[in-house]
Structures are given as structure tokens and as C-alpha cells.
Amino acid sequence: MGFPSRLLGVLIVPLFVAGASFPMGDGDGEDPGTKATRAIQEVPLASTVVVGFNHTCGLAEDGSVYCWGENNSGQLGDGGTEDTRQAQRVAGDLVFESVSVGHRRTCGVADGQVYCWGWNRFGILGDGTDQDQFEPVPVSAGQTFNTVSVGTRHTCALTDTGEAYCWGVNRQGQLGDGTREDRADPAPVSGGHSFVSLSSGLEHTCGLTEAGEAYCWGNNHIGQIGDGTRTDSRPEPTSVEGEHTFESIEAGYNVTCGLTAEGQAFCWGANHTGAVGDGTDENRTEPTPVAGEHTFRSISVGQLHVCGLTSDDRALCWGFNSRGQLGDGTRANRDTPVEVEGGHTFASISAGSHRTCGVTGDGQAYCWGHRFGEGFVAEGAIDAAADDNDEEDDDIDMVDEDEDVLEPRPEAEGITFRAR
Q1: Distance from C-alpha of 90 to C-alpha of 383, rounded to nearest angstrom
Q2: What are the counts of helices (DSSP H) followed by strands (DSSP E) for the chain?
Q3: pTM surpassing 0.70?
Q4: Rounded CA separation 198/183 (Å)
Q5: Distance, C-alpha 387 to centroid of its chain
Q6: Which of 117, 149, 179, 283 has the fewest other C-beta atoms within 10 Å?
Q7: Separation CA 45–CA 169 (nearest Å)
Q8: Is residue 237 over pLDDT 60?
């Protein structure tokens, strides 16, 4: 959800779609495919440390990926299924460009190929099987992807020419192929749109065109598609109401948020916990301004809470706060943005299920909210490829498993994550 401001975490795939239309430019003669590729590359990712349901992964400076937390389906990618107290390096020698996490699985892009690992019921890893995978395996696509976005039970990716492909569970039309049939292999999203970013949520997906037009598809029972209705589901891309021009879009559990080029945040969908951030608990079926005169540069939507980074790199969060995921030192829900405690400034931020993580400008990860797996906060690293990968760091600072972390504290110390 994994839930990645210009993206939840990471995203997208390549493939030719018949009838696909690409922006032709302003008469400058630039090849439309080249222009689409450039536009995608200009879209910044939400975070280099991304939070899923019960695990967290981060992209290190050298392109390796480290994961920690629950590992019952192999979602940590270290070759095993044991929960870990420490950040572990994902097995293999792949150099990743991006990473995205969802429910019990993880995906990343390396050299134009999407790799996934973890839970594989319904064939949601996209490798053509239904077997859990404990190390990265390539998605059966045959296309070149630049980024990938992992939802709860589906995944979407973009090609370098802006074509969107999705696979996994499709009962609410979240794959956007015009059907409700599950797909074990990537299927092209209908409509011929060229996207620069995608974001996969619980049972809906959203994409953004180069012109800043937002489209969503999938479950809409609370208005999370943003078309002004609560129609059960939309199996094809549907235009978001309001004629807004967005710079990024994020799909969460049952809420969606978009960010304009001016830094104004709009949210819509489920609002019973205050996740829309408009100071009410009323569900919204079209984009609604987030309260306060904040200027955001990025935004990340979790399960029932949202966090954003301001133009001066401060973190603000709002919505559900039962485990301290808003980072304001309390467990009280907030229906308007509140500042995260600690005085930190962040380069990126990621909101997950009941937990949030941010990366500072020098690549240090800080997290707050619910601790995953064995009730720990990971402070240290294990390299899954190292000879001593079974040895624990005696300096690991354990936290009482009944105590949530209500303010930011360092995690995976010793690893320098990419800071965008």
C-alpha cells in the first residue's frame, strides 16, 4: 500500500497497447515515446523506505534492498520465513532502482525488469505460479518497466512509454482491464492512456497522465475513485472529478489523495478516521482540500492515515492514530494535519498500515507507530549474503512488545538509504 507521493513506493511496466495515444508535444518534433519516458523519469518517488502491512523495506545507496518485520510468506526476500529483529539484505546481487511493498509481498525494479517475492496466492506475484517465493523472481511480462506499485492483492507497473499493466486479484476491477477476472500475468490497462505514475491501494488503482489528469479504477463503494459517485466499482480508468491538475496521486486503503504543482493536497474517499483531512468525518466522493494552508512537496497514503512533507521538509500526518502512526506523541485520531514530533526534517516519507517511516537527507530511516513481527524496532542490519548472517548484533536495542512507538526513532541504523 503500500502505499508510495509520486507513487506509494515504486512502480510501473512496459508493453505495447494497441491504440495507445501518447502526448505529441508542442510541435518540437520530439518522439512521443521519448517524451513519455522523460516525463516518467521526472516524476519523483514517494520514499526509498516503504512501509507495508507488517513489514518495511528500504533502498540503499548501492541499489541493494533491506527488509525487516514479519516474514511468514517470505516477503523479506532473505530466503527464509522467520521474522527478523534487524534489517536484512534481500538475497541475490540485483541492483534495484525502486522498491514497493504491500500485503505480505514486495516488488522492485532492476534493469527494466520487475522482480517480486513473498505471498503468491492467486498468482499475485506475476511469475506464472501460485507458490510463495522467498527470494526475488522475475515477473512474467516480457516488457521493460521503470517502476512498480504493490497494492493489497494486486500490483501495477509502467513501461518506459507510459503504458500501464496490472496483475493479481481483480474482483473489484482494480486491474483496470475492463473485466473482473484475476490475472496471474500482467494485463494492459484499458483506455489507451499514457501515465507517468501509478499507485495501487486496497482494491483500487490510480494513475496520472503527463498533463496532470488523474484516473482511478476499481472499488468505489466509499467514493475513493473520486468521480462524484459511490458506484460499486469501475473496471476501467475513470476520470477524477474537479478538473484539477495533479503532480502526484496516491491510493491507500479506501482513501485517495492528490497533490497539485502548487503544493495543495486534496483527498477523497473514506473519512471516518479523518484521513481526508478536511476537519470532518464525512466520506467524500470527489477531491476535497486538506485543511490548513500547508504547502506540500510530497504525500503518502497509508491504510487509514496520510502523511505529507512540507516545502521545508517537515512531516505532517492526519487520520487514524491508534498505534501512534501519526507521530505526534498521542494515539488520538486527527482530522486535520498535525506535525510529527522530534523536529526532524525528511527527504521522503511513507505511510503504511499502522506505521510510518521517513528518510532524512543523510539517508537515516526513522519510523513510528506499530512495531511488526516479534514486537521490535529494528536497529541494525544483517546481510543475507554474508557468512555470519545467523549472528545477532549484541547492540540491538529491543523495545517492549506491548509498547508502540509514538514518535520517530531510528531504524536499520548503519544502513544509508537513498534520499531523494
Answers
A1: 8
A2: 1, 29
A3: yes
A4: 18
A5: 32
A6: 179
A7: 25
A8: yes
Give the 3-state secondary structure of residue 177. coil
Please name the CATH architecture into which domain 32-411 falls. Answer: 7 Propeller (2.130)
Cα–Cα nearest to 177, from 205, 202, 149:
205
Secondary structure (3-state) at 123: helix
366 CB contacts (<8 Å, ≥6 apart)?
Answer: 342, 344, 346, 357, 358, 359, 360, 408, 409, 410, 411
Which residues is 58 bridged to in the sheet?
49, 66
DSSP E strands in 189-314: the ranges are 195-200, 204-209, 214-219, 233-239, 246-251, 255-260, 265-269, 284-289, 296-301, 305-310
Domain locations in the chain? 32-411
Range list of H helices, 24-152: 32-42
Express each pLDDT in 305-349 by its tens digit.
Answer: 999 999 999 999 999 999 999 999 999 999 999 999 999 999 999
pLDDT-derived band at 142, boundaries 50, 70, 90:
confident
Place of cell 506505521: 355
